[in-house]
Design a protein that fits this description.
Length: 114
C-alpha cells in the first residue's frame, strides 16, 4: 500500500501562482510514475501532468508552459508549480502514484478567482 498526502491548494486570483506538494509513504519502493489529476465540478477527472521515476514528464495541453511537475525521489515527493492560473484551473487536484496498482491522495482544492 501507498499513502499520498497533498498540500498547497488554496484561493488565488487569476494570474497568480500556487505550488502543490504530494508526499508518499508506505511501499514507496514500488512507485514508478506519479502524477497530478484534477476534477472540476460537473466534469470528469482529467490528467494534468505525470512524471516518471527517471524524470520524464507529460502535460495536458492546456497547462503546458504554465505548470511544471517535479519530483524528489529522496523525499518521496512530487510537486506541481502552477503559474499563470486561470479560473478554468479551478478544481480539486489529486495526486496519483503507480505502484503495482493505482493509489490516490485525498485531493486539495484549488480555486482561481477572476
Amino acid at each position: 500500500q501507498v499513502q499520498l498526502v497533498e498540500s498547497g491548494g488554496g484561493l488565488v486570483q487569476a494570474g497568480g501562482s500556487l505550488r502543490l506538494s504530494c508526499v508518499a509513504s508506505g511501499m514507496i519502493f514500488r512507485i514508478t510514475t506519479m502524477g497530478w489529476y484534477r476534477q472540476a465540478p460537473g466534469k470528469q477527472r482529467e490528467l494534468v501532468a505525470t512524471i516518471t521515476r527517471g524524470g520524464n514528464t507529460n502535460y495536458e495541453t492546456s497547462v503546458q508552459g504554465r505548470f511544471a511537475i517535479s519530483r524528489d525521489n529522496a523525499k518521496s515527493t512530487i510537486y506541481l508549480q502552477m503559474n499563470g492560473l486561470k479560473p478554468d484551473d479551478t478544481a480539486v487536484y489529486y495526486c496519483l502514484a503507480f505502484a503495482g496498482g493505482e493509489f490516490w491522495g485525498q485531493g486539495t482544492q484549488v480555486t482561481v478567482s477572476s
